[in-house]
Amino acid sequence: MAELSIKELLGEEEAGLDLELLAGEVGLEKRVSMPRIQKPGLALAGYTTNLHPDRIQVLGSTELTYLAQLSPEKAGRNIANICALDVCCFIITKGQDPPETLIKEAAQRGIPLLRTHHQSSIFISLITKFLEERLLPSTITHGVLVDVLGVGVLLMGKSGIGKSECALDLILRGHRLVADDVVKVRSKLPAVLFGEGIDLLHYHMEIRGLGIINIKHLFGVAAIRERKKIDLVIELVEWEADCEYDRLGLEEETLTLLNIPIPLQRVPVRPGRNITTIVEVAARNQLLKEMGYHSAREFQDRLEQRMAETARLHSHTIIGDNLE
Q: What are the binding positions for ATP in this chain (predicted)?
């Protein structure tokens, strides 16, 4: 399961969370594994049964105003009861000053107490989106991910079979590289997979005989993408004379990544076959399938109709001959 430390959350800049640390520095290594947050209104009133300590607790104007209306003893007691549950983190919104009791309890128990200038609704939207992105289930796979006509094509196959060379040829035809060699795959609800490159290898590609090349520098920003939904997996395999390959396109296979099935096509590689063109046509064909048009099935239906019509005419001829 993916996790994120409060220290990483505090240091995040691109998401625009604008967080500052007020207390509880010793607890910055606490981990967050849930993308959902919680506003502990009932817990501040003394009902802590449904409080989830593993979720980030967001305190806005409503919560702080309520605490201010309580007697210092009751407010301190309720805050102490919440902190005793080892909450992973408190975040104060709208740049407000937290009660001294909360600062003291957070410091003593090592619970990070953070503050942001955002309003509660805006901050909850920002942090939820950020956590959903960072805490999505993910895996690493070996292959090349390219955007071909808007279709995310993941090229797979054993090392040296020509995945990178095929991707380079696709780039020369105007398509876009997402990741080469190492593809980080993330799942996103309801059942979608996104692929991206790892930081070290972003925009780079290894071509045997040339070495490492930078696609962004060679072809410009129009030749790359940060991430792409994976719509189709094409596995390049070595041609075997005694192996039967699908010649009609009726056999539908899938590759399962992170429990999500992705359409899979196996393309045999041999001298004389233009693999780049085949991949490009496969992407176009996938677009048609997503629009509800399946060429192979349509051909099969027409063939069966023709055979049925031929059989019907043949039966009528036999019956007519017998009547004579």
A: 157-164
The pLDDT tens digits of the residues spanning 156-215 come to: 999 889 999 999 999 999 999 999 999 999 888 678 999 999 888 888 998 888 999 999
How much of the chain is in helix, strand and coil states, percent to nearest 5? Answer: 40, 30, 35
Distance CA 38, CA 147 (A): 38
295 contacts: CB under 8 Å, gap ≥ 6: 249, 285, 288
Give the tokens for residue 47.
């009902």
Indicate which residue of 52, 104, 181, 216 is catalytic: 181
Is 174 annotated in a binding site? The answer is no
The beta strand positions in 29-119, using DSSP E, are 31-32, 37-38, 56-59, 90-92, 113-116
* Buried b / exposed e along 44-64 (16+ C-beta atoms within 10 A): beeebeebbbbbbbbbbeebb
pLDDT tens digit string along 48-104? 888 999 999 999 999 999 999 999 999 999 999 999 999 999 999 999 999 999 999
Give catalytic status of residue 217 as yes or no. Answer: no
Q: Per the residue annotation, which of 55, 115, 118, 163 is the catalytic one?
A: 163
